[in-house]
UniProtKB/TrEMBL annotation:
UniProt GO BP: defense response to bacterium; defense response to oomycetes; negative regulation of response to salt stress
Protein name: non-specific serine/threonine protein kinase
Lineage of producing organism: Eukaryota, Viridiplantae, Streptophyta, Embryophyta, Tracheophyta
SUPFAM superfamilies tied to this protein: Concanavalin A-like lectins/glucanases (SSF49899), Protein kinase-like (PK-like) (SSF56112)
Gene Ontology molecular function terms on file: ATP binding; carbohydrate binding; transmembrane receptor protein serine/threonine kinase activity
Binding annotation for ATP: K376
Length: 678
């Protein structure tokens, strides 16, 4: 029982020969740890593979089972039956070409020092090719050597005392799987492992040699079957069994993977699953795992690449900008859309400051500087005029005044322009004046806002290198900073819609109630049309009423007319905002109201310039005196204008932008209006 266990253990290990029956039978499954007698280049590789030759020029190698065996019966001196099988592989660096060969040898010595390499297979030498001592070999020859009458360069031969084979056949086997055992060629140096069987029957004195691919069971018909009496060949002394191999000039490895031997009986069959693997030569054959993983990996890689591409295209689209050569000079004022997108949290709704006539305004914080900005998205349909506009916007960006909303820069996208301003934390004055939920602003603040706006407008009109007409002065374009200082915003923006100078197509731009009569008539904005709008703004601040208010029965009350009426009736102070509850500077209030009327004079030339207005507000000029004739003259002029404007249709409008025919000055709302002029 213990012995059996030991045997199983040993044979499982597969390395050491199982040496049973007095050394007459053994089997190597791989040669790791085996006590072989090696010479030449023969070596046992770490995996257990016996490598007889390597790529070295003209070498020979031998490997013998260490203990010699008696091939003759002791008493009768007749050759005993024996049988052996081994698995080998001839691996060369070239397809179909390898060095001389490998042989199974039985010889009385392991000393082959006088033998030659090359075609001598490490067995004999050049003196004759015949041996001085008995030698049996089965050669696996891959080179045709005419000297030894080789049949081809891929043959198996039985050699007795000579390299001239007694019998040789091209390598191959009779395939039992095919009916009738068809012969199949084999290529010895195919790099594939093959098994060779050598069987000698001492009774019939027949030597059989059988070859087959490693996975094919031993074919019934041997490749070679030679009648030979080995009794005369075998020495009386014990002889060695083993292998010999030689190399010449071709890169070749001769490997033996496993070997079994038996005297007086069959060699133990080799368990092919326990043989060592051949080393990899050339590209590694693709594994099953790779077959699955590789396409999957490739597919996911392609998918990832596609996704990335789509992402970048999407991102490009998303953050796409329009930039043209002529903009280079405005470079510093240009913002990247991506930065604005990031600053405003992707133009989130909760960052919306308001919606105006030109578009939506978002609050944002610029990344490195923490600068608070307001981004106005202005859509425009045509590229026409954009260039001039950008030029103007940028030049306007150079305007610096403490009562102007600073324009920081711009960004262009398709059909869209983004303007970046300083953010005014208290929003627009319009909200403070008219939103009942907002606390009323006290008079001193109103007066200082009015003065501030006047000074900003004066700067635009007169103090800068060229005259800038604001075109859209109104309460909603007056923005308040933290200290409630008034800043005039949106100057020049109306120009985007008012680039043409052709009177036929000129659009009137401005806001209902703030439009000077001559602006409606001619469509031409001048500093004096700004003064008119400023006058309306003065009245709006003082009275807390919109320029055009809806009264009972859809009656529209025009603020200017309404104040004029009060002035005529001598009750101008009754026009002051009731939310102030009487708490205001009397003189200042009268000044603002009268100045408002003066600035809204129907005739442009009757209006004061902004410098004059500034002088009034600063108290450098006495309050203007409005004679009663002013009233009647103004009323007359107003009527004249209404008659003149009878051609236009009136529109009522919401707070959204409208492009419409212009209504009579006295009707409409405070919405921005773009109108056809004639
Ligand atoms: N620089 C800014 N800082 C803070 N809030 C701003 C700024 N610019 C605009 N806003 C807010 O956005 C709102 C919309 O502004 P926008 O200028 O687009 O419209 P509007 O002034 O009402 O009309 P218009 O288009 O004629 O100028 C304003 O009412 C204001 O509350
Ligand atoms: C071949 O064998 C020689 C001698 O053992 C050794 O020095 C050499 O490294 C071997 N070459 C290869 C490629 O195995
Ligand atoms: C190997 O075999 C030789 C010859 O039989 C013997 O002298 C030697 O002791 C053996 N070595 C081992 C490690 O078995
Ligand atoms: C050839 O081999 C024989 C033994 O096989 C030996 O006696 C002889 O000296 C060898 N000749 C040469 C030249 O090595
Ligand atoms: C060589 O072998 C032949 C037989 O094949 C023999 O006749 C001859 O004498 C041998 N020559 C030598 C030098 O051994
Ligand atoms: C096998 O090889 C021989 C020559 O070695 C050749 O004549 C024959 O056609 C081959 N047969 C096949 C099936 O390849
Ligand atoms: C050798 O082969 C022949 C023919 O196939 C067979 O009859 C004989 O038994 C075989 N001898 C040995 C020892 O296998
Ligand atoms: Mg505005």
């Amino acid at each position: 029982m213990l012995a059996l266990l030991l045997f199983i253990l040993l044979s499982r290990q597969g390395e050491v020969a199982s040496s049973l029956d007095d050394g007459r039978e053994f089997a190597y499954h791989g040669f790791a740890g085996a006590n072989l007698t090696l010479d030449g280049l023969a070596t046992i590789l770490p995996g257990g593979l016996l490598a007889l030759t390597n790529f070295t020029y003209q070498t020979k190698a031998h490997a013998f089972h260490p203990s010699p065996m008696h091939f003759l019966t002791k008493t009768t001196s007749v050759a005993r039956s024996f049988s052996t099988s081994f698995v080998f592989a001839i691996v060369s660096g070239y397809d179909g070409l390898s060095d001389h060969g490998l042989a199974f040898v039985v010889a009385p010595t392991t000393d082959f020092s006088t033998a030659n390499a090359g075609q001598y297979l490490g067995l004999l030498n050049a003196t004759n090719g015949t041996a001085s001592h008995p030698i049996l070999a089965v050669e696996l020859d891959t080179i045709l050597t005419p000297e030894f009458r080789d049949i081809n360069s891929n043959h198996v031969g039985i050699d007795v005392n000579s390299l001239v084979s007694r019998q040789a056949r091209p390598a191959g086997y009779y395939d039992d799987a095919a009916g009738g055992g068809a012969f199949r060629n084999l290529s010895l140096n195919s790099r594939e492992p093959m098994q060779l069987w050598v069987d000698y029957d001492g009774v019939s004195k027949q030597l059989n040699v059988t070859l087959a691919p490693v996975h094919v069971p031993k074919p019934k018909n041997p490749l070679l079957s030679e009648a030979v009496d080995l009794s005369t060949l075998m020495a009386a002394d014990a002889m060695y069994a083993g292998f010999s191999a030689s190399s010449g000039v071709v890169f070749t490895h001769h490997y033996v993977l496993g070997w079994s031997f038996g005297l007086d009986g069959p060699a133990p069959p080799l368990d092919l699953s326990r043989l060592p693997a051949l080393p990899r030569l050339g590209p590694k054959p693709r594994s099953k795992v790779l077959d699955v993983v590789l396409p999957l990996a490739t597919a996911s890689l392609v998918a990832a690449a596609l996704a990335t591409t789509f992402f970048f295209v999407w991102r490009r689209r998303r953050f796409a900008e329009v930039r043209e050569d002529w903009e280079d000079e405005f470079g510093p004022h240009r913002y990247a859309y991506k930065d604005l997108h990031r600053a405003t949290d992707g133009f989130r709704e909760r960052n919306l400051l308001g919606v105006g006539g030109f578009g939506r305004v978002y609050k944002g914080v610029l990344s490195p500087s923490n600068l608070e900005i307001a981004v106005k998205r202005v859509s425009h349909d045509s590229r026409q005029g954009v260039r001039e506009f950008v030029a103007e916007v940028v030049s306007i960006g150079r305007l610096r005044h403490r009562n102007l909303v600073q324009l920081l820069g711009y960004c262009r996208r398709k059909d869209e322009l983004l303007l970046v301003y300083d953010c005014m934390s208290n929003g627009s004055l319009e909200k403070h004046l008219h939103d009942p939920h907002m606390p009323a602003i006290f008079w001193p603040e109103r007066y200082s806002i009015v003065k501030g706006v006047a000074s900003g407008l004066l700067y635009l009109h007169e103090d800068w290198e060229k005259v800038v007409v604001h075109r859209d002065i109104k309460a909603s374009n007056v923005l308040l900073d933290e200290q409630m200082n008034g800043h005039l915003g949106d100057f020049g923006l109306a120009r985007l819609y008012d680039h043409g100078t052709d009177a036929q197509t000129t659009h009137v731009v401005g806001t209902m109630g703030y439009l000077a009569p001559e602006l409606v008539r001619t469509g031409k904005a001048t500093p004096l049309t700004d003064v008119f709008a400023f006058g309306v703004f003065l009245l709006e601040v003082a009275c807390g009423r919109r320029p055009i208010e809806r009264g009972e029965h859809d009656n529209r009350v025009v603020l200017v007319d309404w104040v004029l009426e009060h002035h005529r009736g001598g009750s101008i102070l009754e026009a002051v905002d009731p939310r102030l509850m009487g708490k205001f500077d009397l003189e200042e209030a009268i000044l603002v109201l009268k100045l408002g009327l003066l600035c809204t004079h129907p005739l442009p030339n009757a209006r004061p310039g902004m410098r004059k207005v500034m002088q009034y507000l600063e108290g450098d000029q006495p309050t203007p005196d409005l004679p009663p004739t002013y009233v009647s003259y103004a009323m007359m002029a107003l009527m004249q204008i209404e008659g003149f404007d009878s051609y236009v249709m009136s529109t009522s409008s919401s707070t959204s932008p409208t492009v419409a025919s212009i209504g009579a000055v006295s009707c409409g709302s405070s919405a921005t209006v773009l109108a056809e002029g004639r």
